[in-house]
Amino acid sequence: MGRSGYNCRMKAINIKEKFNLFKDQWSPRIIGELNGQQVKLAKLKNDFVWHSHENEDELFMIIKGSLVMEYRDRKEIVNEGEIVIVPRGVEHNPHTLNEEEVWVLLFEPAETKHTGVIKHERTVEKQEWI
Ligand code: NI
């Protein structure tokens, strides 16, 4: 807890152990930082919220489960071991396929708000380091 970006350097980080440190969904935790980008972990279940990011591209890597990345004109299923990159400006609504919890690794600029420009009850203003 309370780690700065530099303490995450040069040591192996076990992703599954990090996932075991939190339970809440749709609340990304930060596990690493490099070149102004952050590596985050999040647990997802059911729906999120339609949003876009004006200036940031976002990478999702699926660690467990299957994610549906919904765009305005289609859906993309992203399975365990796969990544999807959402370009800046593209509206998206990530959600899960069924009742199963999905674990994702996010890679995006540090200033990225996970609900984009939308203020939503799910918006977490200050994301925590684990
Ligand atoms: Ni997003």
Radius of gyration, in Å, reads 14 Å
What's the SSE pattern?
Answer: HEEEEEEEEE
Quaternary structure of the protein: single chain
β-sheet strand percentage:
35-45%
Shape: globular
How would you portray this structure in words?
There is one protein chain. The chain is mostly beta strands. It has one helix and nine strands; from the N terminus they run H-E-E-E-E-E-E-E-E-E. The protein has one helix spanning 15-19; strands spanning 29-34, 37-44, 58-64, 66-70, 75-79, 83-86, 93-96, 102-109, 128-129. The chain binds nickel (II) ion. Nickel (II) ion is lined by residues 51, 53, 58, 92, 116.
Q: Which key features would you list for this structure?
A:
130 residues, mainly beta, six-stranded mixed β-sheet, three-stranded antiparallel β-sheet, 1 helix, 9 strands, 4% helix, globular, binds nickel (II) ion
Describe the SSE topology.
Layout: H1 15-19, E1 29-34, E2 37-44, E3 58-64, E4 66-70, E5 75-79, E6 83-86, E7 93-96, E8 102-109, E9 128-129
Parallel strand pairs: 1-9
Antiparallel strand pairs: 1-2, 2-8, 3-6, 3-8, 4-5, 4-7
Bound molecules: nickel (II) ion.
Nickel (II) ion binds near residues 51 and 92.
